[in-house]
Write the structure tokens for this entry.
Amino acid sequence: MIKRIVALTALVPAMLGPTVGIASAHSAPPATAAVVTLTYDASGAGQWAGPIKQAVKNWNDAVHNVRLVPSSTPGSADYVYEATSGWPQATLGPIFPGGNGDVQLGRQAVDEGYDATRIAAHETGHILGLPDHYSGPCSELMSGHGPGTSCTNAKPDAAEVAQVEKNYSAGTPAMRPQHHQVVIDIWSGRVPTASR
């Protein structure tokens, strides 16, 4: 009987060892990249302050590889928001620290009935590297004005979140591109872009 207990005592740790090792390997959290912090300046955005605040919160709540924070020194922000009278437009990123992004929040879209917070969140999506997808449903933030004025969704969907996470998964690149495209969100079927 004692030999059986000794044998069982030796066998139990041997059996549990791999099981314990496997269980702990699965419960370990995945390694994450350093979070990229982008600063923005909204001092020239006037009446867009509330929609910008909500749009930034929506993005910060959704993604983990990049954080959007107001710049303590407006002239040194990675991108700026400004109020304009035309159609919304933005630099197509992804923008990285030291970047030169621009979001023009056009009053014309609001005057035609589009939701200001959705516009601000959509244009911020361009800064984070997402292109337009006007044929998408309202649940897609980057469908922009495609679903019409009744669409007020200002939060990115899972696919959009995944793309932004991928855009910033390597952290801050050593070299940033010098030229970006500007995406003008107009209602016509084509989207003109210009190099910057």
